[in-house]
């Protein structure tokens, strides 16, 4: 089932699934008991465009701190809980917008009933998270090292549906599901199979994707493949990195697929022996300046900016952009909306581009 046809689930101010925009999530790596550090990180994530933030809730002290965190932030807050239904009850009492918990892992039926009732009373959604590394059906896999990704997908989907069934039998429908593995074939197969089987919207991501470079490549392929087939209501890019970079990467994936607009589209060449200007440094600084300034970011959203090394490909790309520079020797030919305007020294490139962005209205 593609995302346009899934049921809709509210999480805070957002409606997920059912054709609504794909939302970007991240997860804090602060100690949830540390109110100031967690709020500060979520505010940084929000400034980077993160729309839904998840925190780990390992104990009651962390659960009891969620209300204070919620008061200090603007985005929906998700409590990530394993095994202990009392933590889920406390998190809901503290005002979180979604709980990530697996009903099949929290013991007696009455524990599940209490969590579901509390979630219903407060309008809180529940995400069921199925990870290939911690499957309930792990026994079925033991001694079978050569399972295909499709066989993995069947087991992961069955586990997710069993968990969802527990909630649906209690007439609870505000469910999201995630099916994650640390490799592409299983992640893609599991999400595709689940999407064919159920109308529950999916939160998609590759778990433990790795370092910035390898994690970005793997996540881009996995999420790109699924999103292109209209699978996924929310995404998270897991990287062993600052969570802000996870958010930036998630938006780059959505932008590349033309699914969301966020920040400018910066075109730059890889440079070669013809280049007599510093393109890499210019692009890095330009991005840093734009993404660290809320007003600039809003105004730059939807703009195409080309920063090119020389006259071989430079004028063509620069002409095709809203603003473009084609490098020469320590200077560049400056284009606005397809027209060559003037030559400017490299030292003035960044301020010239930023000033032009400021003059534009937000798209
Ligand atoms: S635009 Fe010029 S400097 Fe950049 S890669 Fe092409 S030929 Fe080389």
Automatic annotation (TrEMBL):
The keyword Oxidoreductase applies. Residues 266-358 form the IspG C-terminal domain. Its cofactor is [4Fe-4S] cluster. Signal peptide: none annotated. Its EC number is 1.17.7.3. [4Fe-4S] cluster binds at residues 269, 272, 310, 317. Binds 1 [4Fe-4S] cluster. It holds the Pfam family GcpE_C. It catalyses: (2E)-4-hydroxy-3-methylbut-2-enyl diphosphate + oxidized [flavodoxin] + H2O + 2 H(+) = 2-C-methyl-D-erythritol 2,4-cyclic diphosphate + reduced [flavodoxin]. Pathway: Isoprenoid biosynthesis; isopentenyl diphosphate biosynthesis via DXP pathway; isopentenyl diphosphate from 1-deoxy-D-xylulose 5-phosphate: step 5/6. It comes from the Bacteria. SUPFAM superfamilies: Dihydropteroate synthetase-like, Nitrite and sulphite reductase 4Fe-4S domain-like. Residues 6-250 form the IspG TIM-barrel domain. One of its GO terms (biological process) is isopentenyl diphosphate biosynthetic process, methylerythritol 4-phosphate pathway. GO terms for molecular function: 4 iron, 4 sulfur cluster binding; 4-hydroxy-3-methylbut-2-en-1-yl diphosphate synthase activity (ferredoxin); 4-hydroxy-3-methylbut-2-enyl-diphosphate synthase activity (flavodoxin); iron ion binding. Keywords: 4Fe-4S, Iron, Iron-sulfur, Isoprene biosynthesis, Metal-binding, Oxidoreductase. Converts 2C-methyl-D-erythritol 2,4-cyclodiphosphate (ME-2,4cPP) into 1-hydroxy-2-methyl-2-(E)-butenyl 4-diphosphate. Belongs to the IspG family. HAMAP family: IspG. This is 4-hydroxy-3-methylbut-2-en-1-yl diphosphate synthase (flavodoxin). The gene is ispG.
């Amino acid at each position: 089932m593609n995302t346009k046809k899934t049921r809709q689930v509210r999480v805070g101010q957002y409606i997920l699934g059912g054709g609504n925009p794909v939302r970007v999530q991240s997860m804090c790596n602060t100690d949830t008991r540390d109110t100031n550090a967690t709020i500060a990180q979520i505010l940084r994530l929000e400034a980077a465009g993160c729309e839904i933030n998840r925190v780990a809730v390992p104990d009651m002290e962390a659960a009891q701190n969620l209300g204070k965190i919620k008061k200090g932030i603007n985005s929906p807050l998700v409590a990530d809980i394993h095994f202990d239904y009392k933590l889920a009850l406390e998190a809901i009492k503290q005002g979180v917008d979604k709980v990530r918990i697996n009903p099949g892992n929290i013991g007696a039926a009455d524990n599940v009933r209490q969590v579901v009732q509390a979630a219903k009373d407060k309008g809180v959604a529940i995400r069921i998270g199925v990870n290939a590394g911690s499957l309930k059906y792990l026994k079925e896999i033991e001694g079978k090292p050569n399972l295909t990704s499709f066989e993995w997908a069947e087991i992961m989907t069955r586990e997710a549906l069993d968990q969802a069934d527990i909630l649906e039998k209690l007439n609870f429908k505000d469910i999201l599901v995630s099916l994650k593995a640390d490799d592409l074939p299983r992640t893609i197969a599991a999400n595709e199979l689940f999407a064919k089987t159920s109308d529950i919207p999916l939160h998609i991501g590759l778990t433990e994707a790795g370092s910035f470079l390898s994690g970005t490549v793997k996540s881009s392929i996995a999420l790109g493949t699924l999103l292109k087939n209209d699978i996924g209501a929310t995404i998270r890019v897991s990287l062993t990195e600052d969570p802000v970079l996870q958010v930036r990467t998630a938006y780059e994936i959505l932008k590349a697929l033309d699914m969301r607009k966020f920040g400018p589209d910066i075109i730059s060449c890889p440079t070669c022996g013809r280049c007599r200007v510093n393109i890499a440094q210019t692009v890095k600084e330009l991005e840093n300046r734009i993404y660290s300034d809320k007003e600039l970011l809003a105004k730059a959203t939807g703009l195409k900016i080309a920063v090119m090394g020389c006259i071989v490909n430079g004028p063509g790309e620069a002409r095709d952009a809203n603003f473009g520079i084609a490098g020469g020797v320590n200077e560049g030919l400056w284009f606005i909306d397809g027209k060559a305007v003037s030559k400017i020294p490299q030292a003035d490139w960044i301020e010239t581009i930023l000033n032009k962005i400021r003059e534009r209205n937000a798209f």
